């Protein structure tokens, strides 16, 4: 594969754009931390910005009901929480490629520049549509938007990208584990 695309992982605080996500994520993290016997940590959401032939695009996953304005290409859609709830738009997510001009609120950190194959976005066709919030792949961690970004980086041959120090990115390890299969 030719390496002629560049990318950055942008880490945004979970829920920076809305009260529901911020509150439910904080509640969920407190429960998980108590179960694991550790202190709760702030959560982050990864967005992969890819530049190919001078065109910047973001690879992101979010609810279908919170559609991103502007040009977007939906790659796949999947259920949230439970497959049987997936019939309802409130319980569905979409994996999308969006023009990179719109930045999500709460961006904490932008990772180092990554060199990727020019056809990296073609890999998105192979992303599994697992249920968000479940460990259907049996890899020890739930599938999330973070899983998709780490899955894509792993498939593109990029290793060593980690969430910012002091933050947790639920699902990050799941994506890499599934991609290695």
Describe the structure.
The longest helix is centred in the first third of the chain and has 18 residues. The chain is an alpha+beta fold and 181 residues long. β2 and β3 form a beta hairpin. The model has no long low-confidence stretch (mean pLDDT 84). α2 packs parallel to α3. The protein has three helices and seven strands; from the N terminus they run βαββββββαα. Strands 1, 2, 3, 4, 5, 6 and 7 form a seven-stranded antiparallel β-sheet that branches. The protein has one domain. The protein is globular and about 45 Å long.
The gist of it:
The protein has 181 residues and is an alpha+beta fold.
> Structural class, from secondary structure content?
alpha+beta
Q: How large is the share of residues in beta strands? A: 25-35%
Integer average pLDDT: 84
- Percent helix, as a range, is 10-25%
Number of domains: 1
Helix count equals 3
Pick out the low-confidence regions. none
First-to-last CA distance: 20 Å
Number of strands: 7
Largest sheet: 7 strands, antiparallel
What's the Cα radius of gyration? 16 Å
Shape: globular
Instruction: Give helix and strand order, one letter per element, not per position.
Output: EHEEEEEEHH
């Amino acid at each position: 594969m030719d390496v002629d695309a560049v990318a950055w992982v942008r880490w945004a605080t979970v829920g920076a754009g809305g009260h529901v996500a911020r509150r439910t994520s904080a509640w969920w993290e407190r429960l998980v931390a108590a179960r694991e016997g550790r202190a709760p940590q702030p959560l982050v959401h990864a967005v992969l910005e890819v530049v190919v032939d001078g065109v910047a695009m973001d690879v992101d996953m979010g609810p279908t009901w919170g559609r991103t304005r502007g040009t977007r290409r939906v790659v796949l859609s999947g259920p949230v929480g439970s497959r049987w709830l997936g019939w309802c738009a409130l319980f569905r997510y979409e994996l999308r490629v969006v023009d990179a001009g719109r930045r999500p609120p709460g961006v904490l950190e932008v990772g180092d520049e990554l060199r990727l194959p020019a056809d990296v976005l073609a890999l998105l066709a192979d992303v599994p549509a697992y249920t968000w919030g479940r460990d259907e792949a049996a890899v020890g961690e739930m599938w999330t938007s973070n899983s998709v970004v780490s899955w894509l980086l792993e498939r593109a041959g990029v290793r060593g990208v980690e969430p910012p120090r002091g933050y947790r990115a639920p699902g990050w390890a799941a994506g890499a584990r599934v991609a290695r299969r």
